[in-house]
Design brief:
heterodimer, A: about 280 residues, mainly alpha, 10 helices, B: about 575 residues, alpha+beta, Jelly Rolls, 3 domains, 4-stranded antiparallel β-sheet, 16 helices, 24 strands
Chain lengths: ~280, ~575
């Protein structure tokens, strides 16, 4: 029993189960397809059942107080059953693109749900490691508060440096280059692909003004550099965490849309089947 | 913005007495009995006079013949004194669980579980009327924490189990009350109508504090009883004949290190970043091994000199042994003796047993089969270079920490430096798997009236976060200062839980918790208005993780995590952690 707790073993078991189920389904479909002309009804109901099961994962999340199957097991089943559902979907379509805008929309929605799910799966396995590697841990809800705090610190630092230096070089630079950076989330796309380019550009610009500032301002610049790095790290956490949360805003609405379309599809099919089943 | 609700009296220590049934006559009667009649009331302070301690922190209970008074394994926060009749303690072997009526505590039914969907209040920290001050539940006669189990077939028990009588005037239950550990034996009433005085922990603390005689008496019996229990649990004592065991027991010393209330010092040390070298040393590396040390309660750190500092190799919990391997080596190789290979330092409040090497050599080692003797050791290596590879497997190292273990020196240091080994249900999060979805937090809130009872935040080592959730510690120092016993161990599972009915919001537990896992909250009424006391200040209550004791299925946080990133682990030993990390 302990073995099942090992991720590699669990993964191997689940892939093997998926493979067996897929092969079994393909064989069964191949045999039945020749003898049963209305097999599409069977695959359709099977597909709807699988989709309802997959949607039930969201309902399970809403009932944490019930001794249901732990979410970790449910998610594993959700992932692999989701892949299997893709195969059943293709069998239901008989490997052909559907005709008519309604069926095409339905197929596109199914594809969207499946692909967004696979994409979310990949994100959930890759992005957490990037956060861990980057270091620091920021609850998403706290990010605006921390950003505001960094902004205030930077402004205080720059304003406080004007009188001792008797110059506004740094303040002018802050207004021109850094005010916007500190006031809102920045460089979302760069953070998502792990690029350090915007940060290095900004630090380079700060280094550029080194020639024009006096000794007291240089100390302020060193502290400002540190705040810029902290803000950049905060933006990185925001970009990654937002992406990890954001994909669900595609996956879940599409799922509910798909279910509504699927029910309509069933009603339409049975309305116009004319006793073919 | 909420406005203050109607004002209530500020909760005080004795608003909820241990029992409402204690009368003036009972107190007067107690004051005629030893040891209370010999106590000097003047030595008690005005804030805790002897009479009030007896009235509010004690209760008189009567037991039928054979009725169980305390059960082995239960957690208890009180001690007992036999007033009339006698108790019978079952020494060995312990009674089976069924004989003592052991059953799991009550959890919510299916309907009440589902009903949380619509019954959870919209406002945070709503305190139900039944839990507000003045309506606190009392635990008098028939109180819910009393056990009414009659032991069946007492003659058979007397035949099969070694027992001893506790006559009038004797105290018992002090080990569990003082050490914050489970009851070590089952005790039942020997005579019909046995009358006992039950003293809750807070009262016992005050009585011992202000009466030196009682303190000396309790200390003595505590040492005697704890010693006999502890020695019987040591593996190498199993082979010893009864007579030799008694000789070993007679030579064994019982030592206590550290402060009973160690939390404050630990917090100061953590703030200042004090190294391991600041901790009290029990035995030092390269000293001659002249005794075996066994940790009775608390924890000790095994360190080895490393460059100019000390590296933590392991920590020892209750029942673990230090120094035995060196003594065994020297006994087998008198011409090639070794010194102690590691240093043992205590952390927190630690009881240890010390058995002299001469006694071990005379009685224990000759009785042990060759296969059970520890392997011979290499000589001490002297001061290690910081660039040298990790030390050889330490004597105290458990199998899980052997070479190849996922628990390396840095993680070991992290666990010990933060004293996380104290946790029996520490919440660990693998940050490499955690998508920060907060499903765990939402699940916690859904099972606690919409109030999450932990923070997904806490100390981090590499990809491992120990979240700020109550760890249900082996040594729950949070319980030390509680004046009402509101924070207590569940008598069945041992979880540390807070009773909101008796919590007076004094913040003692929150301040004592070394890990910051208890939060004080402002309470509200059903309309969401903040409850305030007569002094116009809000009424606070302590809140913390209760491991979902009343929920079906256990901790909701673990069951809610879809990414297998969160687990509750016992860090007293490294087994569970090592298994979890190896996945």
């Amino acid at each position: 029993m302990r073995m099942i707790h090992r991720f590699a073993f669990r993964r191997a078991c689940l892939w093997a189960a998926l493979g067996l189920a897929s092969v079994g389904t393909l064989v069964a479909f191949g045999r039945l397809n020749a003898t049963r002309p209305h097999l599409v009804y069977l695959t359709g109901w099977f597909l709807l059942g699988l989709m309802l099961y997959l949607t039930a994962f969201n309902a399970r999340k809403k009932l944490p107080f019930l001794p249901l199957i732990p979410a970790r097991i449910w998610l594993q089943l959700h992932l692999y059953v989701g892949l299997f559902t893709g195969l059943v979907f293709l069998l239901h379509l008989r490997w052909q693109w559907p005709q008519g805008w309604f069926e095409a929309t339905l197929a596109l929605m199914f594809g969207g749900v499946t692909l967004s799910g696979v994409f979310g799966w990949w994100l959930s396995r890759t992005l957490p490691r990037r956060l861990t590697t980057a270091g620091g841990e920021v609850p998403y809800e706290r990010i605006p508060v921390i950003r505001r705090s960094l902004q205030l610190q930077a402004e205080k630092l720059v304003l406080g440096g004007i009188l001792p230096a008797n110059a506004s070089t740094l303040a002018d630079f802050y207004v021109a280059r850094l005010a916007d950076f500190f006031s809102r989330p920045a460089n979302f796309q760069a953070h998502l692909v792990g690029s350090q380019r915007p940060l290095n550009q900004l630090l380079g610009q700060i280094a550029e003004i080194d020639r024009f500032i006096n000794a007291s301002e240089k100390k302020t610049v060193a502290e400002l550099n540190e705040l810029v790095r902290q803000k950049d790290m905060l933006d990185f956490h925001r970009a990654v965490q937002l992406t990890m949360k954001g994909w669900l805003f595609v996956h879940i609405p599409l799922t509910y849309g798909l279910l509504v379309f699927s029910v309509a599809h069933v009603v339409i099919i049975y309305s116009f089947s004319g006793g073919a089943r | 913005m909420s406005t203050p609700a109607s004002s209530l009296g500020r909760p005080r220590r004795w608003d909820a007495a241990f029992s409402d049934d204690m009368t003036d006559a009972d107190v007067v009667r107690l004051l005629t009995l030893a040891p209370f009649r010999d106590m000097n009331p003047e030595s008690f302070p005005g804030s805790a006079p002897l009479r009030e301690v007896l009235r509010n922190d004690t209760r008189l209970r009567r037991f039928k013949k054979g009725e169980i008074i305390v059960r082995e394994g239960d957690y208890g926060n009180s001690a007992f004194m036999v007033v009339a009749g006698a108790g019978q303690v079952v020494i060995a072997p312990g009674l089976p669980p069924s004989a003592v009526g052991r059953r799991e505590s009550k959890r919510r039914g299916l309907f009440r579980s589902i009903a949380q969907l619509w019954t959870n209040p919209d406002e945070p920290e709503v305190l139900p009327k039944s839990a507000r001050q003045g309506l606190a539940t009392t635990k008098g006669k028939g109180g819910k924490d009393e056990i009414h189990i009659i032991l069946q077939d007492i003659p058979a028990v007397l035949n099969k189990h070694r027992t001893a009588s506790l006559e009038a005037g004797a105290f018992f239950g002090e080990i569990a009350a003082l050490s914050r550990i489970p009851r070590t034996a089952t005790i039942y009433a020997r005579d019909e109508g046995t009358e006992l005085l039950e003293v809750r922990w807070q009262g016992l603390r005050d009585l011992m504090k202000y009466d030196p005689k009682l303190r000396a008496y309790i200390d003595r019996i505590y040492r005697e009883r704890a010693l006999s229990t502890a020695l019987s649990e040591i593996p190498f004592m199993k082979h010893l004949p009864e007579e030799a065991q008694q000789k070993v027991a007679a030579a064994t010393q019982f030592e206590t290190y550290g402060d009973y209330e160690w939390s404050g010092k630990f917090k100061d040390m953590a703030k200042s970043g004090a190294p391991a070298a600041k901790e009290q040393v029990v035995a030092a590396e390269e000293d001659y091994p002249n005794s075996v040390v066994i940790v009775r309660t608390g924890f000790a750190r095994v360190t080895q000199r490393y460059g100019d500092g000390h590296r933590t190799l392991n920590y020892l919990g209750a029942g673990q042994v230090y120094g035995f391997e060196e003594i065994a080596h020297n006994w087998r190789n008198p011409d090639d003796p070794v010194t102690l290979q590691y240093t043992l330092r205590v952390m927190g409040y630690t009881h240890i047993l010390v058995i002299p090497a001469a006694v071990i050599e005379e009685f224990v080692l000759p009785s042990m089969p060759e296969r059970d003797l520890p392997p011979r050791r290499a000589k001490a290596e002297g001061t290690r270079s910081p660039f040298a590879p990790p030390a050889a497997v330490p004597i105290a190292k458990r199998p899980d920490a052997a070479d190849g273990s996922p628990i390396g020196p840095a993680l070991m240091e992290f666990l010990t430096q933060n004293r996380l080994f104290n946790g029996t249900e520490a919440m660990l999060i693998n940050l490499d798997r955690c998508t920060r979805c907060d499903d765990c937090v939402r699940a916690c809130a859904a099972t606690h009236d919409n109030n999450p009872r932990f923070l997904r935040h806490g100390p981090i080592h590499e990809n491992l976060m120990v979240a700020q959730a109550c760890m249900h510690c082996t040594d729950p120092v949070c319980m030390i200062g509680c004046p009402t016993g509101a924070i207590h161990r569940d008598s069945f599972g041992g979880q540390v839980v807070v009773n909101p009915s008796t919590c007076i919001g004094c913040t003692a537990c929150a301040n004592n918790c070394p890990y910051g896992n208890i939060r004080m909250v402002e309470t509200r009424d059903d309309d969401g208005e903040i409850l305030v006391a007569g002094d116009a200040k809000p009424i606070l209550k302590a809140t913390k993780c209760d491991l979902c004791v009343d929920q079906k299925g256990g901790p909701a946080c673990v069951r809610a995590c879809p990414h297998d990133a969160l687990q509750r682990l016992n860090l007293n030993t490294l087994d569970e952690l090592a298994d979890w990390l190896r996945r």
